[in-house]
Amino acid sequence: MTTVLDTMRNHRSIRSFQEKPISKEQIERIVSTAQMASTSNFVQAYSIIQVTDQEKRKQLAHFSGDQIYVEQAPVFFVFCADLYRIQQAIHHNGKEAEFSTIENFLVSIIDTALFAQNVMLAAESMGLGGVYIGGIRNQPQQVSEVLQLPQLVMPLFGMCLGYPTEHLPEQKQRLPLSVILHENEYQRDQQNEIEQYDRAITEYYRDRTNGRRADTWSGMMARLFLGPQRKSLRDFIEKQGFPLD
Amino acid sequence: MTTVLDTMRNHRSIRSFQEKPISKEQIERIVSTAQMASTSNFVQAYSIIQVTDQEKRKQLAHFSGDQIYVEQAPVFFVFCADLYRIQQAIHHNGKEAEFSTIENFLVSIIDTALFAQNVMLAAESMGLGGVYIGGIRNQPQQVSEVLQLPQLVMPLFGMCLGYPTEHLPEQKQRLPLSVILHENEYQRDQQNEIEQYDRAITEYYRDRTNGRRADTWSGMMARLFLGPQRKSLRDFIEKQGFPLD
């Protein structure tokens, strides 16, 4: 039995899995337990699509930037922000739903993410491991066609789950607590802490590559945000009917 | 020692707290453990502002729709999506960050929510309870002024934490698993399940109000989405520098 704090502390992204299957009962236990996460005004504005069809898996792996573990993981989920269900329920009541502000979009994203983190931790507490797949947003239109998503359902991220192979990846140190946790007002001057963190990350890579990789967190961020990311996303969100006003 | 699944299953929103304080060490343990949550490309695009100043608490309680527990809870956090830190780090490297697509905004929201759910569960596993405060988005501009948030930092939601009083609220049943968990494609016809769920919610309220409250989930959703919500949010997001393109 692992405690909550230990489960969190042991987290690493797992991309390599044993072939050992995961049962339907395990999945239902994970997902139904995760549903107890908080949800804004009880809207529960999310759905999971579990992809068991191998052809669809292959397509999604490709659309996610050729991430082979999307095809190979014992379990692959696509987490979707979902206002469609609510709209249907309201229609059935003979009323109209007004989803007209970005607030409605934000609520569905936050609800989905809180729920997803419960899924991840529940799975980890049962000996599984996994990784979030943001690459599912690379080609959201194609993903939606594969999964037959109606209007007001948006694929936010994927998740691979399975029993990890014996070699667990090492953990990367997080940002210093002092830049994450502020008191009463936002502390803008974080330069010393960031420099200290950059040095820690440099050491991490140096030790693990026999000195071949010299990198810093700041440097990684500079490369990552060099140009615009996922430019097709905005059009997709609007086309899918989520309000941005 | 409580397991992860038990902690999730026992979740309820706690709004009434004992006066028993929570130590700095407890808070640091909760937050630093929660930081091990997954983060997209290691960006860690979030900050917490812990509000200890009573005057600020009073203001935030008011801005959140006069939620008295925001003022009274032993601990109150504001969770912020944060691209400011990354921008500063990149600037210091002599480079420019391009935050130009809605993808950058989504990543910071999802990162923040995954981290926040870890905070909630970590706290719950230590005997605390809490509630998310979406009301922090009612008047985001005023909240940002109270907390002195720079550009590229956005208050997403608050969280009250403390030791629950002895009376724990009852839990509301979640949507049937069959409408949350789909296989291979989105199942659009959820009408039977929603009707069954509506009946369960009706029973829940009838039993707990001696028959005075007759309600359904669909009916609650219809009232909730009757008109536009938080109309000032879009302008605030743009003003704060988060890209929506």
Summarize the structure.
The structure is a homodimer of 245-residue chains. The first copy, chain A, is built from eleven helices and five strands, in the order ααβααβααβαβαβααα. The first copy, chain A, is an alpha+beta fold and 245 residues long.
Please give a structural write-up.
2 copies of one chain form a homodimer. Chain A contains 11 helices and 5 strands. Chain A has 245 residues and is an alpha+beta fold. The first copy, chain A, folds into 2 domains: 4-170, NADH Oxidase (3-Layer(aba) Sandwich), CATH 3.40.109.10; 177-214, no CATH class. A 4-stranded antiparallel beta sheet of chain A has the order 1-2-4-3, with helices on both faces. In chain A, helix 2 crosses helix 6 and helix 3 packs antiparallel against helix 7. The N and C termini of chain A lie far apart (47 Å). In chain A, 49% of the residues are buried. The mean pLDDT of chain A is 96. Strand 5 of chain A pairs parallel with strand 1 (46-50) of chain B, so a sheet runs across the interface. Chains A, B: Residues 9-163 form the Nitroreductase domain. Chains A, B: GO terms for molecular function: oxidoreductase activity. Chains A, B: Keywords: Flavoprotein, FMN, NADP, Oxidoreductase. Chains A, B: This is FMN reductase (NADPH).
Q: What structural keywords apply?
A:
alpha+beta; oxidoreductase activity (chains A, B); Flavin_OxRdtase_Frp (chains A, B); 245 residues; 2 domains; four-stranded antiparallel sheet; NADP (chains A, B); FMN reductase (NADPH) (chains A, B); 44% helix; 11 helices; 5 strands
How is the topology of this model organized?
Two copies of one chain form a homodimer.
Chain A (H helix, E strand, L loop, with lengths): L3 H6 L14 H11 L11 E5 L3 H10 L4 H5 L2 E8 L1 H9 L9 H24 L3 E5 L6 H7 L6 E10 L14 H4 E3 L7 H18 L8 H8 L8 H7 L6
Antiparallel strand pairs in A: 1-2, 2-4, 3-4
Helix pairs in contact in A: 2-6, 3-7
